[in-house]
Automatic annotation (TrEMBL):
<dbReference type="GO" id="GO:0042183">
    <property type="term" value="P:formate catabolic process"/>
</dbReference>
<feature type="binding site">
    <location>
        <position position="287"/>
    </location>
    <ligand>
        <name>NAD(+)</name>
    </ligand>
</feature>
<protein>
    <recommendedName>
        <fullName>Formate dehydrogenase, mitochondrial</fullName>
        <ecNumber>1.17.1.9</ecNumber>
    </recommendedName>
</protein>
<feature type="domain" description="D-isomer specific 2-hydroxyacid dehydrogenase NAD-binding">
    <location>
        <begin position="161"/>
        <end position="339"/>
    </location>
</feature>
<feature type="binding site">
    <location>
        <begin position="261"/>
        <end position="265"/>
    </location>
    <ligand>
        <name>NAD(+)</name>
    </ligand>
</feature>
<comment type="subunit">
    <text>Homodimer.</text>
</comment>
<feature type="binding site">
    <location>
        <position position="151"/>
    </location>
    <ligand>
        <name>substrate</name>
    </ligand>
</feature>
<dbReference type="InterPro" id="IPR029752">
    <property type="entry name" value="D-isomer_DH_CS1"/>
</dbReference>
<keyword id="KW-0496">Mitochondrion</keyword>
<feature type="site" description="Important for catalytic activity">
    <location>
        <position position="337"/>
    </location>
</feature>
<comment type="similarity">
    <text>Belongs to the D-isomer specific 2-hydroxyacid dehydrogenase family. FDH subfamily.</text>
</comment>
<comment type="function">
    <text>Catalyzes the NAD(+)-dependent oxidation of formate to carbon dioxide. Involved in the cell stress response.</text>
</comment>
<dbReference type="InterPro" id="IPR029753">
    <property type="entry name" value="D-isomer_DH_CS"/>
</dbReference>
<feature type="binding site">
    <location>
        <position position="226"/>
    </location>
    <ligand>
        <name>NAD(+)</name>
    </ligand>
</feature>
<dbReference type="GO" id="GO:0005739">
    <property type="term" value="C:mitochondrion"/>
</dbReference>
<keyword id="KW-0560">Oxidoreductase</keyword>
<dbReference type="GO" id="GO:0008863">
    <property type="term" value="F:formate dehydrogenase (NAD+) activity"/>
</dbReference>
């Protein structure tokens, strides 16, 4: 971080001294010497050696172990993230940098932040830092940054696949084949073309826009709702119509795709009441975050047919417990959290993490779009 930023933070902390607790910025400037860096990733076990580019797992360790250790840093990698005796807890007290990933989220609570006296930097290998208590991180003066843009194509492609899987009623047909059955009617009575359907995305940032661009050749009626309207040129190029009022857009949609971050405003956005106002039989794709939906309301609506199909890769919490209702609801095409962790995406977010660590060691700024918490402030869409 530039000196200017540190001074600004310090001034903010002093100005806040009116009885409210000041923001005590720790300053993102790696002091010389060895740093303790902890990474929490999913474990690959027997799959680890199947692909040399499989860097997103514990065994692959983002491919930065040799580089970090050659500079004298201490790099610990684990998948053990839950409970008071887990591996992560052992290192919380003295780590300087914590690298986490949304695919196997280490929940960085206010309590953990309080214990982490040396912590300066929280890096998200991927996109979406809602597993971190961002307000607590801001109050503690920590920097939170993610590798913005690293897996947007991966997620948009996956969403397109899920839209087609639901529209065509694909999965029950596949299950028939595996179980030795053959029943065309059981599939075709509710299989449709995508052409001519109304598709609305809630959130049209990096992923939402890529999805809209990919949907254009399918000749759908494309709508989007976002905090921010696109500039008219881009809107025309993408061919989607802006809907300022979310609740006016949703009942028009045959297919709804969620593409906003999980924030205080989007948490539980799709509750029982909102779902009841959707078109009967609506298809929903959610690769954004599980907690944007009311879990039980989605399960009930899938059971009643109000939701005709639900697909996504995000759950709350993760890994999803064995008794999570979405595992057992009808008309679903759920998977574990996989869309943003293709091998291509892993290589991009590993490179992004390395770049930010390099800048941190040199005391340089990160690319501005990567910051989620900086100088005691949350990025605008999280406020
Ligand atoms: N499943 C996965 O593997 C995976 C991978 C990457 C990202 N994601 C999720 O997708 C989200 C979006 O990623 P992105 O790269 O497109 O982010 P982005 O920041 O480029 O886009 C988010 C968009 O949502 C809009 N938005 C935010 N809050 C809103 C609100 N309350 N109402 C309306 N619009 C709102 C923003 O204005 C922005 O245009 C991430 O935050 C993450 O949660 C999931």
């Amino acid at each position: 971080m530039a000196l200017k930023g540190i001074v600004k933070s310090a001034i903010q902390a002093l100005v806040a001294g009116n009885g409210a607790s000041p923001v005590l910025c720790r300053g993102l400037h790696a002091s010389p010497g060895s740093k303790k860096i902890v990474g929490v990733f999913y474990k690959a076990n027997e799959y680890a050696s199947k692909n040399p580019n499989f860097v997103g797992c514990v065994e692959g360790a983002l491919g930065i172990r040799d580089w970090l250790e050659s500079q004298g840093h201490h790099y610990i990698v684990t998948d053990d993230k839950e409970g008071p005796d887990c591996e992560l807890e052992k290192h919380i007290k003295d780590l300087h940098v914590l690298i986490t990933t949304p695919f196997h989220p280490a929940y960085v609570t206010a309590e953990r932040i309080k214990k982490a006296k040396n912590l300066q930097l929280l890096l998200t290998a991927g996109i979406g830092s809602d597993h971190i208590d961002l307000k607590a991180a801001a109050e503690a003066g920590l920097t939170v940054a993610e590798v913005t843009g690293s897996n947007t194509v991966s997620v948009a492609e996956d969403e397109l696949m899920r839209i087609l899987i639901l529209t065509r009623n694909f999965l029950p047909g596949h299950h028939q084949v595996i179980s030795g059955d053959w029943n065309v009617a059981a599939i075709s009575y509710r299989a449709y073309d995508l052409q001519g359907k109304t598709v609305g995305t809630v959130g049209a940032g990096r992923i939402g826009r890529l999805l809209l661009q990919r949907l254009k050749p399918f000749d759908c009626n494309l709508l989007y709702h976002d905090r921010i309207k696109m500039d008219p040129e881009l809107e025309t190029q993408i061919g989607a119509k802006f809907e300022e009022d979310l609740d006016a857009m949703l009942p028009k949609c045959d297919i709804i795709v969620i593409n906003t971050p999980l924030t205080e405003k989007t948490k539980g956005l799709f509750d029982k009441d909102r779902i009841s106002k959707l078109k009967k039989g609506v298809l929903i794709v959610n690769n954004a975050r599980g907690a944007i939906m009311d879990t039980q309301a989605v399960a009930d609506a899938c059971a009643s047919g109000q939701i005709g199909g639900y697909s996504g890769d995000v759950w709350h919490p993760q890994p999803a417990p064995k008794d999570h209702p979405w595992r057992y609801m009808p008309n679903q095409a759920m998977t574990p959290h996989i869309s943003g962790t293709t091998i291509d995406a892993q290589l991009r977010y590993a490179a992004g993490v390395k770049d930010m660590l390099e800048r941190y060691f040199k005391g340089e700024e990160f690319p501005p779009q990567n910051y989620i918490v900086k100088d005691g402030e949350l990025a605008s869409q999280y406020r």
